[in-house]
Design brief:
Number of strands: 16
Order of helices and strands: HEEEEEEEHHHEHHHEHEHEHEEEEHHEH
Oligomer: single chain
CATH topology of the largest domain: TIM Barrel
Helix content: 25-40%
Structural class: alpha/beta
Strand order of the largest sheet: 1-2-3-7-6
Radius of gyration: 24 Å
Distance between the termini: 46 Å
Bound molecules: zinc ion
CATH class of the largest domain: Alpha Beta
Low-confidence stretches: none
Length: 452
């Protein structure tokens, strides 16, 4: 039988406390776990059997479904719940006993497995960027990647808590949305050498027959030595901030602060243009964060170095923020190495965790949560803010290839609606350099509206 360590039980209790608004105590009890309210003697909720599958790093767990409505419980998405880890479920799944409730599904094990990405540890079936791809995940294979399974099961647990302790009032959450922008390329031309500009001009003229772009390239290069040109296709920062402000959002811009590969940026964070850009973002009330370069995801010392480099620039510019977070370039992530590296670099949150090849709920949740390292069995300071959708995952032909039509719009909106239903946070990544067409602007502007 799997045993949770004391730090793991404390971490699980902290997840429940954030979700429901009370302090809980979780204790081993026979072969299972007993959940009590910390300042209440009366009754408990028992999870009599724990599932060892939730401590294993592979994607071959069995899978089943639980029809909550049929059993007299509410399903927040009004659909049967994915029940991973089991082939068959006991009936009834939830029972009332003399002074307690019994839950015959390992909701806490599921939470531990999903939030801590236990599935991904030591995997070797990675993509060409060394990433664990959605298509190899249990969630994708069993069709629940677009379901926040942890949030759905905690919604059921909330109902059990409410029945067990009718006197308590569960914490109410509100739906929110967060937009962020990885600054891979702040300018299409400014930071490139003339040799490259000339090659790009030839492409505009000969391949695309685009005279406007042909003329604009040298013009932008020549006229933006002090600040980004208004005509630069990647200089969408003012527009992004306008749109965010119109909808009561704060944009977060994550800057690359190192060069570890040719996949990295062509700018340096200390460049006067970039510093001016950061000042402007800060003045307008938006956030600046880190986008660790391509080769850093297995190298904690480099993540720390790049974080310190950004901190130094921000300090020189007098930029002070309560939060200092960001996202890995290319969403490169090795769990828990990269997580621990972010933690040790003194960052407050990371928002990398979505899959590049499919959108949805890689961590099974759209709520931010405190991180835990299952290898060292230690709670970390860093918080994980799951990413739900990156624009190119849905639009680009190398991933889902839905382009800009109704199908793409619906996919984004379905994900947003799911987050709204569970009262979580819809996090959307849209690169500042991904507004090459009016279609991008129209789609983005539609997605950030409050009422869609
Ligand atoms: Zn990037």
């Amino acid at each position: 039988m799997p045993q949770f360590s004391t730090p793991a039980l404390n971490w699980l209790a902290s997840i429940l406390e954030e979700r429901f608004g009370f302090a809980f105590t979780l204790q081993p009890y026979q072969a299972g776990l007993k959940l009590s309210l910390s300042d209440c003697e009366q009754g408990f909720i028992l999870f009599p059997s724990l599932n060892s599958a939730f401590h294993e790093s592979h994607s071959d767990l069995p899978h089943s479904e639980w029809d909550a409505a049929q059993a007299g419980w509410l399903s927040v998405l009004e659909q049967p719940l994915p029940a991973l880890g089991v082939r068959e479920l006991p009936q009834p799944l939830i029972e009332q006993a003399a002074d307690h409730y019994v839950v015959h599904y390992d909701v806490l094990g599921l939470t531990y497995w999903m939030l801590n990405r236990v599935e991904e540890i030591d995997r070797t079936d990675l993509d060409n960027h060394g990433r664990f791809p959605a298509i190899h995940s249990h969630a994708y294979k069993h069709g629940y990647l677009e379901r926040p399974v942890v949030d759905e099961w905690l919604h059921v647990l909330g109902q059990v808590i409410q029945k067990q302790w009718p006197q308590v009032e569960l914490k109410q959450h509100e739906f929110s949305m967060k937009v962020s922008h990885d600054v891979d390329s702040p300018s299409l031309y400014q930071f490139k050498p003339w040799k490259t500009i000339i090659r790009m001009m030839a492409g505009h003229l000969l391949k695309r027959r685009d005279i406007k772009a042909f003329l604009q390239a040298p013009y932008i290069k020549l006229t933006s030595s002090k600040q980004l040109s208004q005509h630069d296709p990647h200089n969408t920062f003012e527009w992004l901030m306008d749109v965010s402000e119109k909808h009561g959002l704060q944009s977060a811009f994550y800057f690359i602060c190192g060069t570890t590969s040719k996949m990295d940026a062509d700018y340096q964070p200390e460049h006067p243009i970039i510093r001016q850009l950061m000042r402007r973002m800060h003045e307008r009330g938006h956030e600046i964060g880190l986008h660790p370069s391509y080769g850093t995801y297995q190298k904690p010392e480099l993540i720390k170095q790049e974080a310190d480099r950004l901190r130094a620039v921000m300090q020189k510019e007098g930029i002070k923020q309560n939060e200092f977070g960001g996202r890995m370039h290319y969403l490169r992530w090795q769990h828990p190495t990269t997580l621990q590296a972010w933690n040790d670099a003194g960052m407050t949150y990371d928002t990398t965790l979505s899959y590049a090849d499919r959108p949805g709920f890689r961590c099974g949740t759209c709520f931010e949560y405190p991180a835990f390292n299952t290898i060292t069995q230690q709670s970390l300071q860093i918080r994980i803010r799951p990413l739900i959708a990156m624009e190119c995952t849905i639009i680009a032909d190398r991933y889902m290839n839905l382009g800009y039509g109704k199908e793409a719009e619906n996919k984004f909106l379905e994900l947003k609606d799911t987050c709204r239903k569970v009262k979580g946070c819809f996090t959307l990544l849209w690169h500042n350099s991904h507004f090459n067409s009016q279609q991008d602007k129209d789609l983005y502007a539609k997605l950030v509206k409050e009422d869609v």
